[in-house]
Specification:
Elements: E1 7-9, E2 16-18, E3 23-27, E4 33-35, E5 46-48, H1 52-60, H2 63-67, H3 77-101, E6 105-107, H4 109-118, E7 123-126, H5 132-145, E8 148-151, H6 155-159, E9 169-172, H7 176-193
Parallel strand pairs: 7-8
Antiparallel strand pairs: 1-2, 3-4, 3-5, 6-9, 7-9
Helix pairs in contact: 1-3, 3-7
Length: about 200
Amino acid sequence: MAKAEPQRSCLGCREVKPKDELLRFVLDPEKNVVPDLAKRLPGRGAYTCYRRSCLEAAVVKRQFSRSFKGEARTPSAVDLLSMVTGLQEERVAATIALANKAGRIVSGSDKVMDALRKGSIALLILAEDISPESAAKFLAIADKTGIESFRFSEKERLGSPLGKDLRSVVAVCPGPFAESLRRELKRYGNFFEGGAE
C-alpha cells in the first residue's frame, strides 16, 4: 500500500495541501524566519501556499510566531516576499544554466523562432521586459503549436545563466530539464498572480 503524502496547512489561507506543494519556512540560528524552497534546511517547518497573498496574510496575522511557538523573528511582508522572489529566481536561473550546459536550451530570437516552427521544444520562456511586438510573434506560434509559455524576470536575468548579456526569449528542449523548469516557473508565476499551485 502506498504511503500517504504528508499534508500541511497554509498559514495564510489555512487550506490543507500536500507538503511538497507548499512553500516551507524555517528559523535560522538567530530565530529569523527564512524561506526554504529546497526543503532541506533543518528544523521545524511552517508552510504557506505559493501565493504572495497567503504569505502576506501569514505575516499580518502573526502566524509564524504562533507556528514557531513565539520564538520567531518575522521580517516584514515586503522583506519576506523579496527573499522568496530572489530565491525563486535563483532556482529558475540555476536550472536554465544546467539545461544550457546539457545542450537543452535554444537561445537567440531567430533560433528560437525556428525551433518553435519545427515544434522541437517543450516550453518557451519570455523576459518580462520583451517588447510587446516581439512577444506577440513568439506567443502566436507557441499557441498555434501547443507549446506552453512563461514569463520570467528581465532580459539580463534571462541571459545571465546562458553567459549572455541579454536574452528576450529562450526555448527549452523536451526532457527532465523542461519538466523541472515548468514546475519552477508555474510556482514563480503563481506567487505573483495569486493562482493555485
